[in-house]
What we know:
This protein has 378 residues and is α+β, with helices and mostly antiparallel strands.
Amino acid sequence: MSRRTSDLLDLIQRLYAAPGGDAGWQAFLDELCRRLNGSSAHFISINSHRHASVAMTIRTDPAALDAYRRHWYAFDPWGRSPSLQNVTPGTIAIGDDLITHSQLKRTEYYAGFARPNDMVRCIVGMIETGPQMLSVISINGTERRGPFGTDDAALLDALMPHLQRTLQLHRRITTAEAASEDFSSVIDRATHAVFLIDAAGTVMYMNREAERVVATRDGLCVEDGELLAARAADTTRLRSLLADAAATSKGEGIGSGGALALGRPSGRRPLMVLVTALSFRRQMFLGFEPAVAMVTVTDPERVAVPDEEILGVFLGLTPAEAKLTRLLAQGVTLDEAAIRLGLQRETVRTRLKAILEKTSTHRQADLIRLALSAPPVL
Length: 378
């Protein structure tokens, strides 16, 4: 095996270890720079306005990088070369073909930036091109190194299809991870407990409220990975609903899950449970077991009431009216509300009458139902 082939295989291995984080890409860039006897290496994005933005760099003085971003990008003769405007993905370009070295040495860019930072030679690979964006890998060299040659271009050319694939994979991974983190963040702030269950009946995921519910062991708990009710009969019913949902999710049944109320040893109002089948998904090769059911649990003792500002906006209430409405939605009686607000009982009754008229409701119970339908702050 030739040294060039060995270099290529090693770099390909490093590439496929890179997607998903910065460290792997930096390690690949550093090794590529070493193999090409470069002084620095960069991933660069060039937008439709010919604005070059360095996305990642190695072996570059942070002060020089900052100067490039603030000033020198506008004078970069390689990044702004007309030869790069209509290139196709996979194109490899040597700096001397974009601008001769003698011409480069006469530029302000050379004297003010390239020479002081040992970036006077260049080879670039166009990873992807389009009307709005170019993604470029760039390796720089010193005067002492001399120009990049055909062997250097051949190595970068052999790497290019792997660069393109790993960049696509990197984007998919980071996008999926970001979406998952966003979803988890939203679900964690939900007022309902949420559990995801696999075909074996094992809890795969719990949001923050679900963790609180099972920690109290007041009506529901998790033992050996299984969601169990406080009463044996409730557990049997819960298992039956989960089995129905799992069968539907796997395309083997038509049950949709169901609802049940779970009694609580504390004597508090029962937990309200809803079991729902999830969309059918085949298990991927060497992938995780997919969730087949979602269990949502509402604790009637912890019903979330929207804050006063939201009630004011959605129901068209004044701050004082919104404050009274929120107290009533929290289960406070009119007499208790009068005491908390420091008002006479008749004043509170008059205010409630005005609220009912504004909201087109006729009873206090209807007003509370309307208030609880407004979205809570997550």
